[in-house]
């Protein structure tokens, strides 16, 4: 429902930075043509996480959370993209909850891909198999109140994408997520119960 007339059409040359890690999250964009790299680090420590192509949404997580950019988006080829300023998006998300939920699902699917790829039982899956599994996932309703959730999906469990909570696993061990000093995105095994903090995203 985000209207095209509010979009700004932009282009980028190969190796041009579209989004820089650490910068303010003031827009979201959709790639119309070309290929981009998602990278972290600088210089010799720079690592490419993935590549994105036509139709991919970029910059959605920072717009949703208000946090600074966690990764850089760099044009690998000539790129054309449409971008929407954050204030326009916030207006539409306020008017249309489905827009916000759709962006959260996109953000969570991307985060879940990196998280599940490291888990036993998923590490040997091809990227196509992993994405097919993730696409079956459902965004748990986001609430301004804390809420109790049972992770009963036998195949995959769940992924905490944003926020925090407390997990009690099938062995009755209780721990907080995200773990101190650990990644912000946490895998939760099936059979666990979770008390989500307010506005946490699962």
Mind describing the biggest β-sheet?
4 strands, antiparallel
Order of helices and strands: EEEEEEHEEHHHEEEEEE
Strand content: 25-35%
Radius of gyration over alpha carbons?
18 Å
- Low-confidence runs: none
Integer average pLDDT: 86
**CA-to-CA gap between the ends?**
23 Å
Strand order of the largest sheet: 1-8-3-6
Shape: globular
Task: Describe this protein's structure.
The chain is α+β, with helices and mostly antiparallel strands. It is 22% helix and 30% strand. It is built from 4 helices and 14 strands. The strands form 4 sheets. A 4-stranded antiparallel beta sheet has the order 1-8-3-6. A 4-stranded antiparallel beta sheet has the order 2-7-4-5, with no helix packed on it. A 4-stranded antiparallel beta sheet has the order 9-14-11-12, with no helix packed on it. Strand 4 (36-40) and strand 5 form a beta hairpin. 26% of the residues are buried. The model has no long low-confidence stretch (mean pLDDT 86).
Q: What's the topology here?
A:
Layout: E1 8-12, E2 17-19, E3 27-33, E4 36-40, E5 47-52, E6 57-58, H1 60-65, E7 72-75, E8 79-85, H2 86-95, H3 97-116, H4 127-135, E9 147-150, E10 158-160, E11 165-168, E12 174-177, E13 186-188, E14 193-196
Antiparallel strand pairs: 1-8, 2-7, 3-6, 3-8, 4-5, 4-7, 9-14, 10-13, 11-12, 11-14
């Amino acid at each position: 429902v985000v209207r095209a007339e509010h979009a700004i059409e932009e282009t980028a040359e190969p190796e041009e930075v579209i989004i820089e890690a650490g910068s303010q999250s003031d827009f979201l964009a959709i790639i119309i043509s070309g290929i981009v790299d998602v990278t972290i680090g600088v210089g010799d420590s720079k690592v490419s996480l993935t590549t994105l192509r036509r139709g991919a949404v970029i910059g959605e997580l920072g717009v949703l959370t208000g946090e600074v950019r966690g990764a850089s988006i760099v044009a690998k080829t000539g790129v054309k993209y449409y971008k929407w300023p954050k204030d326009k998006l916030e207006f539409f998300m306020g008017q249309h909850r489905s827009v916000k939920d759709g962006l959260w699902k996109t953000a969570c699917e991307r985060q879940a891909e990196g998280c599940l790829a490291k888990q036993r039982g998923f590490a040997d899956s091809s990227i196509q198999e992993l994405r097919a599994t993730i696409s079956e996932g459902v965004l748990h309703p986001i609430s301004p109140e804390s809420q109790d959730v049972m992770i009963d999906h036998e195949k995959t469990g769940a992924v905490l994408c944003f926020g925090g909570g407390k997990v009690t696993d099938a062995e009755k061990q209780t721990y907080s997520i995200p773990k101190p000093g650990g990644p912000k995105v946490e895998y939760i095994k099936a059979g666990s119960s979770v008390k989500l903090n307010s506005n946490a995203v699962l």
